[in-house]
Amino acid sequence: MTSLFDPITLRDVTLDNRIVLPPMCQYQATEHDGVPTDWHLVHYGARATGGFGLVIAEATGVLPEGRITPDCTGIWNDDQRDAWTHIVGFCHEYGAAMGIQLAHAGRKASTYSGFDPAKSGSVPLDDGGWETYGPSAIPFPGLATPIEADTDYIASVVAAYAKAARRADEAGFDVVEVHAAHGYLISEFLSPLSNHRTDSYGGNFTGRTKLLLEVVDAIREVWPEGKPLFVRISATEWTDHGWSLEDSVRLAPILNEHGVDVIHVSSGGNVIAHMPADEDYQIPLASAVRAAGVRVCAVGRITDPLKAQTILDEGHADLIAVGRVALREPSWPLRAAAELEVDSRARYPDSYLRGRWPAVEPVR
Ligand SMILES: Cc1cc2nc3c(=O)[nH]c(=O)nc-3n(C[C@H](O)[C@H](O)[C@H](O)COP(=O)(O)O)c2cc1C
User: Fold this and answer.
1) Which end of the chain is more exposed for a tag (fewer CB within 10 A), N or C?
2) CA-based angle 251:253:259, to the nearest 5?
3) Which residues of the chain have pLDDT under 70?
4) Looking at ligand 1, which residue's alpha carbon is closest to its atom 5?
5) Domain segments of the chain as ranges
């Protein structure tokens, strides 16, 4: 049986365990220049010292207009890269591998973070917002109508992903994750509900997946052979006539052939739809994608260590991401180790050893 705490090697990168911090926007690039701040050092640093095998930094814009909010991070210039370098170096020191989610928010860019309850929806131009782009001039409900991206713009997005991946490598990241989920630009292209194009980037499955495959190929050109590439997808839109689980199962081996190592299986976000309320809503999606012969990271409402271990035991996933629970409990993996009776002393920073979870005899 694979333990949640067994290492896993992806290309030349070995993760210390199977527990992943999934990308979670912090909205703390407070100068609106996309440069990560002390917040990001403390936030990611705490999860690295907290025992995560892989920490994936939040949706990070490959272009300024690709940020979800003005407070989101970027990686389109060297200042941003240098700030990330510092954070990655710290996290490496404490045993975590570091990933970064490369993103373009498409028609869902230029929105308010929600921190100020008086401000919601699209940020107007006179409040620091910008024009958005989508596959078609169809707005996400409640947001501004995007400009339909022409082929020059699409080419510039593909090039920006490649430049961002190069900077991610220079910053020391071990993993790049392409954000192709949740109704952001690439996900908008995948879905027939948001992509009404009649050119080669629309229409059937091949047309709608073209942008994603171009992005993956462009990244693989510059991203080192020895470093893994993840793609996060919304495996279903939870609605009729949208991107479906069957589409995801068809896409997974194609991505694998293009050099993608792990599919991070999320769902929804491109249209307003009713998502199942049960705890296991996304596990069958991960399982179905994995059955197509690719490694997957499962995510969504996984809060209990035993449950996380069971998902691995039952063969539904290779990696387990725990998101919101890690916002309130940065060292969730260290508690999980104690509950699963695994010795994780090696992952405690020396300064914290005296406060470790009650010692247990290793079971192996
Ligand atoms: C505050 C917050 C920010 C998030 N930001 C991102 C993001 O940047 N990229 C992304 O793909 N998902 C994002 N998500 C989704 C999470 O990665 C995760 O898939 C989701 O929270 C479900 O997992 P959980 O139930 O363990 O929290 C975010 C979620 C939260 C709560």
Assistant:
1) N
2) 105
3) 359-364
4) 24
5) 8-355
**Tally of CB atoms within 10 A around 127:** 11
- Cβ proximity of 193 and 237 under 8 Å: yes
At residue 125, what is the residue type? L
Q: Do residues 228 and 13 touch, judged by C-beta distance below 8 A? A: yes
Per the annotation, the verdict on 352 as an active-site residue is: no
Q: Whose CA is nearest to atom 1 of ligand 1?
A: 24
The pairing of beta strand 13-15 with beta strand 8-10: antiparallel
Q: Report pTM.
A: 0.98
Q: Does CATH number 3.20.20.70 belong to domain 8-355? A: yes
HSE, side-chain direction, 13 A CA sphere, residue 257: 8
Query: If we measure between CA atoms, which residue out of 62, 122, 108 comes closest to residue 270?
Result: 108
The structure tokens 């220049």 sit at: 33
Which residue has its alpha carbon closest to ligand 1 atom 21?
323
Distance from residue 23's CA to the centre of ligand 1 (Å): 6
3-state secondary structure of 337: helix
| Residue 364 Cα to ligand 1 middle (Å) | 33
- pLDDT for position 358: 84
Ligand 1 pocket at CB < 6 A = 22-25, 58-59, 101, 179, 181-182, 232, 266, 299-302, 322-324
- Residue-level pLDDT at 359: 62
Task: Report the C-alpha dihedral over residues 199, 201, 207, 211, rounded to 10 degrees.
Answer: 170
pLDDT tens for 120-175 read: 999 999 999 999 999 999 999 999 999 999 999 999 999 999 999 999 999 999 99
Q: Distance between alpha carbon 178 and the CA centroid of its chain, in Å?
A: 7
Between β-strands 8-10 and 262-266, what pairing exists: parallel, antiparallel or unpaired?
A: unpaired
- Give the model's pLDDT for residue 361: 52
pLDDT at residue number 145: 98
Of the CA atoms within 13 Å of residue 53, those in its CB half-sphere come to: 25
